[in-house]
Amino acid sequence: MAIAIVDYGMGNLHSVGKAVERLGYEALVTGDRDAILGADGVILPGVGAFGDAMLHLRESGLDAVVKEAAAGPKPLLGICLGMQLLFSSSEEHGEYEGLNILPGQVVRFAPGELKVPHMGWNRLEFLHPENPLFAGLEAGHVYFVHSYHARTEVESDLLAVTDYGHPVTAIVGRGSNFGMQFHPEKSGELGMKLLGNFLALTGSKALVQGDYNQETVYNDDPVQVALSWEKQGGTYVHLVDLDGAKAGHPVNDELIGRIASAVNVPVQVGGGLRTVADVERLLGLGVSRLIIGTAAIEDRTFTEEVLGRYGDKVAIGIDARNGYVATRGWLETSEVQAEVLAKELAAFGAETFIFTDISRDGMMQGPNVEAIVSLAKASGRTVIASGGVSVMDDLLRLSKHAEDGVGGAIVGKALYTGSIDLSEADGRVVKGVNFVNLRDAGDPVELAALYDREGADELVFLDISASVEGRETMEEVVRQTAGEIAIPFTVGGGISKVEDMNRILRAGADKIAVNTAAVLNPQLIADGARRFGSQCIVVAIDAKYNEAWGEWEVYTHGGRKPSGIKALEWVKQAETLGAGEILLTSMDADGTKDGFDLKLTAAVSESIKEQLSLEQVVEHIRWSDGLVPAIVQDAETRQVLMMAYMNRESLKLSLESGETWFWSRSRQELWHKGATSGNVQTITSLKYDCDGDTLLVEVKPNGPACHTGAVTCFHNEIVGLPEQPGDKASIESGATTASSSSEGRFEVLAELESVIAERERERPEGAYTTYLFDKGVDKILKKIGEEASETIIAAKNKDNDELRLEVSDLMYHLLVLLQERKLPLDDIMSELSRRHERPRRD
Questions:
Q1: Are 614 and 677 in contact (CB under 8 A)?
Q2: Residue 832 CA to chain centroid, in angstroms?
Q3: Domains of the chain
Q4: What is the reported pTM?
Q5: What is the C-alpha radius of gyration for the chain, rounded to an integer number of angstroms?
Q6: 128 falls in which pLDDT band (50, 70, 90)?
Q7: How far apart are CA 256 and CA 284, in angstroms?
Q8: Which CA distances in Å does 143 have to 170, 488, 752, 780?
């Protein structure tokens, strides 16, 4: 049976399906209930917004199907949005109920010093390494792209986290149900291994890397397949009798004879050849060359005899695992080194070796060129490469070593999956200078696979002629590329509607880049962000310096048409509309090899360091029945004055007027603080906490806050509370927290010190200070080093606004360090006073 990939109208279906196939399993993309419930395992992918995804699931009836699958014994995996859907609810664009398979809520990252969306490669920390999902794996980096993250209610459900200012849910699991916040199929080697471990839990079967317990049937008519390869240009047909290799003697003689008679190109056969009679019988069927494998290790007398009798009609097949020869159809690994065997058999007359790196065969990860060349040089004979060939570029790489003895390559799975088409394909990569004089630079699919193997972290495919030619993006190229790579993939060009975005995402892209269409219709950015999430929307900007303006201008249609729009203004607008990323191209620097246009890059970076819009602020706040508590604090004395509630309208009025407005729950109406008494509160700062569920309003009060005439509403002290450890103790007497009596203008430091001490005692979940204490002194010291460096940079740049922020961050982390070392701030202040009072020398 297959692995069912749930098609509910939203999801990176093709790339997930291809990843499953690359790992050797059968993938079935389906929305059929029986197919999903009858599969060996289920994958719920997802790209987009939580609410829209749940709507699609409910309208199609697939929500009940997924729940039914999750209730059964077969493994289920949610990927990215698919993982979030497993939880009880989400606050993305409102309050939405999830599948409730795992208890917990999906919440937005609180913006601040961290960028939202969370986008990039982050390291995993396995919390339960004993889980079979992590079998044989070490923690490493995977690719994240999301604006919302899950909070589990059951601690044991959390299997792995990543560090993004605080621990972020990365992998969850309960029983046979799992979820990954990242895309494993786009997270390189570690991601594919994690996906492979999940697939192994399903018990589904496929023949990969020579495992006889796994098999894939690509076609039930081998004769027609052989004729097809010949028609496409194949110069040799390579047959392996897998049944014969396992049995120890050829089994499929009749089929081999039919293939040899049907084609007009040479046929070579391997598998189970152990006797001279076997060799003579197959040669009599029209086979041109026979491959001796296991017998070359186990029966040297037979091997020497057939080499002496049949010469170049016999090739030696060397299948190696980690440099050692594997025998009996890869079921066993010998103690004989591949290069040693090749040297010995070359001395007996072997002219041709067929070398297979078992770790690469069937996995489409590229051939082990180094090992192939090394074997050819060691033996001094011709070596034909087998295993791992996945794209045309693999063949080109091998062809460069013809002089070293590499005589050809055997292509298998890549032909069946369509990764290599011997009849050639359209669609090329072009490159020019300053967007002109474009030249052909190769096949995009081949280059994508090459970049992936060479260590690229992310790929961007821009169909630069789509807008000019008025056509859609080359979807098939996107589909093929997504099937060949295991890293994130952004696609742009010819995308002018939300439907186009959905089509390309389903074809395998992770993000969508819009350029010309967004300039002509900016609402496209907002519509895309609303449907798929801002993390999926990239605004590509081609900018060229306009001498008359003294700044950069946006160009459209592949850099061919000036738009009359200033680039920096367009960047700000794109961000406001919901773009999660800017893909910036300097037309002045493109292709010149003179380095990045740092001036343009810096200008764009500065232009998006703006305050959040009201709409963005409202979106980030976690409203409860339309309300959020607001704590009002004196900006100068730091005294808490009052607590009241705001709704969306009162928050808007507060921001617009600069004075506090609230919502009266008793009177069910808006009220302007001080409107009748004159005791208005002028807002100096408005913040929300790390959870987004409480506001802090710092004000300059024009009179008392309380209706009783008291300065603060908090004037009724609760007495009789037990004394808390560390309240009055000193470090010398064994206090557990640092203490301070600093007063006056430095009162805020003492207050902050007290809060930090409380955080260390209570360790509230999700607090950044808790995170620092949990990680220990090394993490705290690392953060101090980072903040010190950023302080230096701000000072060197003569940016006092930035310097103010960086010094504040540095002082906060220093106070955390003092608390960790149990050194009170009072001691520091005393030392400073002592130095200040030291008598001067004449």
A1: no
A2: 49
A3: 3-202 (3.40.50.880), 222-417 (3.20.20.70), 436-609 (3.20.20.70), 621-701 (3.10.20.810), 744-836 (1.10.287.1080)
A4: 0.50
A5: 33
A6: very high
A7: 11
A8: 10, 7, 36, 26
